Amino acid sequence: MSETIAAAPGSPAVPQATQILEITVIGTPAGQGALSNKGGGRMVHSNHAVLMPWRAAITQAAIRALGTHQRVRVKRQPNCRICGKPNRRHGVISQGPVAVQMVVTVERSEAAAKRGDLWPDNSTTSDADHHARSVLDALCNGSVYADDGQVVVLETTKVFSVTPVPDTLPRPGAVIRVWKIGVPAA
User: Fold this and answer.
1) Looking at the domain assignment, is residue 83 inside a domain?
2) Whole-prediction pTM
3) Cα–Cα distances in Å, from 35 out to 134, 137, 147?
4) Among 33, 49, 18, which Cα is nearest to 134's?
């Protein structure tokens, strides 16, 4: 199905785009931000306990939807251990530009509910760009595209379940869409 991306008001219009994936993932969204040094050169995300299950849920949802497998990298090996495809070309969209749109529904704190906040603009949730980073890495792990550097159009919306925008979920989670951008006709 070929279409122009315009799912939400103000979305960037991308001609010659083919939707590859649409998934809804329920769970606790976690942004990918600060790293902590655990000694010996080992770095771990400060919210590792929440981040890793969230990324795994997105990866598994993408794998189920596309019928792919998680890329398995082995140190100093140029190919996926499962299918033998080169790591640099591993993914349903193995090369070329990609557009990603996500609406991340986060938990609304009691204080935000008391204030009547419709948007998560306080310090109790991760930044929208940190949410985008965790989703983009999880999609790469799920073999949606070969590298998140292929993403040239990115729309991230962070909402509460009461925020009046399309794709807001009734509980924490995310709606994620991915398009392969084609070459415009001359």
Assistant:
1) yes
2) 0.85
3) 13, 15, 21
4) 33
